[in-house]
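Model it.
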Amino acid sequence: MRHLTICALLATVVLLPMFTTPAFAVETIHAKLQGFNEVPAISSTGSGEFRAKIQDKTLTIDFELSYENLEGLAAAAHIHLGQEDVNGGVIAFLCGAEENLPVQFREP
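Modeled.
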């Protein structure tokens, strides 16, 4: 009887989250951007911050990208995928060529 009670308790602990979590998740990610994190690392006065919410249900990504103290003009923003300390391939373009940039990214 004791063995059956322990099995029932374990089954409840394992199965309960499957019925109490939403079917579609929202994941929030955050990254601090600095030259030291580039591969290879660079010395730069520029820095930035990236925040995003990835929503499974609507297949959307809402993001906010901010930066300051750049030593030149902002030319493009994109997301790489790869292991740490290695340049991974670009998997998503956030903004790019001048004609496609939002007003706040354009040269005055």
